[in-house]
Inverse folding.
C-alpha cells in the first residue's frame, strides 16, 4: 500500500496539457493523484502524477482491472474525470470500486442529447424542440415538426460542435444531414442525428457545482462563435459578478436537477433567446477551452479542485477570492492547409503583464483543416488568455493579443493532423 499524508484521487484520462493542465495542477495541489490513461503521462503531466496504469478507458474490463491495481497500491478516496468521452466508463469504475459518483445512467443521460431533451421537457426546463432523424426524409419531416426553418442538425452524443450545423433552407438539408451523420458516426453512446429548433440570441454557459444534490451556479461564461452554418467556438470570457448569472443561473440549476446529477461540476450551455434563457445542453464535467482556468483567474474559484473534493465526498470551498475578468481567444487559420510559419510579435509578451499565456496548438509543417471537412480538433492554430479589471477591457485585451498571434498557411488538400481540445 502506497502511503501518503494526503488523500488519493484517481483521474481517468489526463487530456492535452495545453487545455487540461490547469485541472491536474489544481487537483495535485491538494491530492495525491493517480491516473488511468491509454498512454503514459507526458513530461508536462509527470510532476503531478504519483502513479499510473495504462489501459483503454473505453474498455470497461481493462479500466476496472487498472482501477483495482491502483486501489491495491493506494487508499483511493475518489474517482474523477474532466474528459467528456469517458464520463460513463468513469462512473461505472467508481461504482465498481464503491466510491462516490453519479450513476452511469445519469452520465448516459448527460451524454445523450435526445434523452436530455426528454428529461428537460418532463421537468419544465426551457430547451429546444427536438426530434431524431434516421434518414433524410425523416429529417425533412422533423424540420417541419420542430417549427420550420431555420433548424439545427447535430449528433445526439458527440461534443466540441463536431457535426453541428445550421440549416437555413430546405434545399440545404441534404448536405447538412450528411455532415451531421458523419459527426454522429464517431460517437460511442449513440449514432443518432437530431433535428432541433434553432435558438436565437447570444450563447453563454453557466458553470455549476453540485454537492449532495444541491447545485450552485458559480460563474457565467460569455461565448464567441464563428460564422454560421457552423458553431465553432472562437472565444470565451468570464467576469466576477456578471449580472447574467442571476438570469441564466436558475435555468442551469433546473437543467442539472432534471438530469439527476447529484455530484460534480457541470458546464451548462444556454442561449439567451428572445423568449428567455433556454438550455442547449449539459456537459457533466468542467468546460473545455480553458473555461475553468478563466473562472479561477476571474473569481479564484477552482473548479477542478472542487470536482476532486466532491469526488472524495468533501464539501468544496466556493468562496471567491478575486474580482476581475479573464478571456481566451482561439486562433484559427484563414484557410485550410499546411502551417508554414507562426509567431507572436517580438516583445509583445514581455510588455503585457496581463497576458496569462499565448499557446500554440500547431507546429510548422502541421496540416490544419477547417469545417466542413474538419472541426475544432483539426483546425485550431493557437490561443491567448488575458486578464483585466473589467469584462470590457478583458475583451479588448484578448483581441489585441489575438492580433499579435499570426499563422501563415500553404493551402493543401492532404488529410490533417488532429489537435486535441
Amino acid at each position: 500500500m502506497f502511503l501518503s499524508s494526503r488523500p488519493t484521487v484517481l483521474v481517468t484520462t489526463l487530456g492535452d496539457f495545453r487545455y487540461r493542465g490547469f485541472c491536474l495542477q489544481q487537483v495535485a495541489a491538494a491530492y495525491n493523484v493517480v491516473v488511468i490513461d491509454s498512454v503514459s503521462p507526458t513530461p508536462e503531466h509527470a510532476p503531478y502524477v504519483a502513479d499510473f496504469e495504462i489501459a483503454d478507458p473505453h474498455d470497461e474490463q481493462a479500466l476496472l482491472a487498472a482501477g483495482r491495481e491502483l486501489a491495491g497500491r493506494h487508499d483511493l478516496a475518489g474517482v474523477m474525470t474532466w474528459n467528456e468521452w469517458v464520463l460513463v466508463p468513469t462512473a461505472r469504475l467508481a461504482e465498481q470500486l464503491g466510491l462516490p459518483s453519479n450513476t452511469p445512467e445519469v452520465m448516459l443521460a448527460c451524454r445523450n442529447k435526445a434523452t436530455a431533451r426528454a428529461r428537460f421537457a418532463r421537468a419544465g426546463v426551457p430547451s429546444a424542440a427536438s426530434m431524431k432523424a434516421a434518414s433524410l426524409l425523416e429529417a425533412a419531416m422533423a424540420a417541419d415538426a420542430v417549427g420550420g426553418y431555420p433548424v439545427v442538425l447535430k449528433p445526439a452524443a458527440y461534443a466540441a460542435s463536431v457535426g453541428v450545423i445550421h440549416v437555413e433552407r430546405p434545399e440545404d438539408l441534404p448536405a447538412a444531414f450528411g455532415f451531421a451523420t458523419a459527426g454522429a458516426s464517431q460517437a460511442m453512446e449513440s449514432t443518432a442525428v437530431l433535428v432541433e429548433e434553432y435558438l436565437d440570441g447570444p450563447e453563454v454557459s453557466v458553470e455549476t457545482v453540485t454537492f449532495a444534490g444541491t447545485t450552485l451556479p458559480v460563474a457565467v461564461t460569455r461565448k464567441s462563435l464563428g460564422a454560421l452554418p457552423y458553431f465553432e467556438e472562437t472565444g470565451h470570457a468570464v467576469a466576477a459578478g456578471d449580472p447574467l448569472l442571476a438570469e441564466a443561473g436558475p435555468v442551469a440549476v433546473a437543467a442539472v436537477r432534471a438530469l439527476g446529477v447529484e455530484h460534480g461540476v457541470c458546464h451548462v450551455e444556454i442561449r439567451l433567446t428572445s423568449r428567455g434563457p433556454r438550455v442547449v445542453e449539459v456537459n457533466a464535467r468542467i468546460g473545455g477551452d480553458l473555461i475553468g482556468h478563466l473562472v479561477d483567474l476571474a473569481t479564484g474559484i477552482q473548479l477542478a479542485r472542487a470536482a476532486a473534493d466532491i469526488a472524495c465526498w468533501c464539501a468544496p470551498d466556493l468562496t471567491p477570492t478575486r474580482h476581475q475578468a479573464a478571456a481566451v481567444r482561439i486562433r484559427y487559420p484563414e484557410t485550410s492547409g499546411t502551417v508554414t510559419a507562426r509567431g507572436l510579435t517580438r516583445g509583445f509578451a514581455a510588455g503585457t503583464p496581463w497576458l496569462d499565456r499565448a499557446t500554440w496548438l500547431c507546429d510548422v509543417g502541421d496540416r490544419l483543416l477547417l469545417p466542413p471537412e474538419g472541426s475544432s480538433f483539426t483546425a485550431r492554430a493557437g490561443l491567448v488568455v488575458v486578464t483585466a479589471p473589467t469584462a470590457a477591457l478583458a475583451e479588448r485585451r484578448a483581441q489585441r493579443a489575438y492580433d499579435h498571434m499570426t499563422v501563415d498557411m500553404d493551402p493543401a488538400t492532404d488529410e490533417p493532423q488532429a489537435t486535441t481540445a
